[in-house]
Amino acid sequence: MNTEEAREYCLSKPFTTEDMPFGDDYVAFRVGGKIFAGLPLEQRQVLVLKCDPAVFDEITATYPSIRQAWHWHKRHWMELHLEGEDIAPELVRELTDHAYEWVFSHLTKKAQRALTEQTSL
User: Fold this and answer.
1) Three-class SS state of 53
2) Is the dihedral of CA 75, 76, 81, 87 positive or negative?
3) Is 10 exposed, middle or buried (0-12, 13-18, 19+ CB in 10 A)?
4) Cβ neighbours, 10 Å, residue 61
């Protein structure tokens, strides 16, 4: 999977918005106003994803191409090097789903309801 495919997959998640809060060299993907993924444009083929700290050590120990994301909270953000031999497209999708679901599940019930009610209008 390349950077553009990762971007398209992030945007395919329900209620996802895209912005550049850190300048022109970083794209952030949000659900309910909270970031679940990021693409540093200066570092091609890198995807940053939110992660449940309870599984962070297992993921980073299993995949050499995944490590703690630079400049992000140590055990909550992982950095995937998309060109890594151990990073299959299915894994990128699975970890992106994990990041999205982790962030969505930590939104307030009111915020979750507001998002889901938007689609039923």
Assistant:
1) helix
2) positive
3) buried
4) 9
Tokens 């970083």: give the residue: 26
Q: CB of 35 within 8 A of CB of 18?
A: no
* Cα distance between residue 102 and residue 47, in whole Å: 16
23 pLDDT more than 80: yes
Q: What share of the chain is helix, strand, coil (3-state, %, to 5)?
A: 40, 25, 35
Could you read off the pLDDT of 52-103 as tens digits, one per residue? 999 999 999 999 999 998 877 778 999 999 988 899 999 999 999 999 999 9
Which pLDDT does position 120 carry in this prediction?
57
State CA 2 to chain mean position distance: 14
Residue for token pair 């031999």? 85
Say if CB 36 and CB 50 are below 8 A apart.
yes
Instruction: Output the six-digit token pair for 111.
Output: 């915020």
Buried b (16+ CB within 10 A) or exposed e, 98-107: bbbebbbeeb
| Residue 2 reports pLDDT greater than 50 | yes
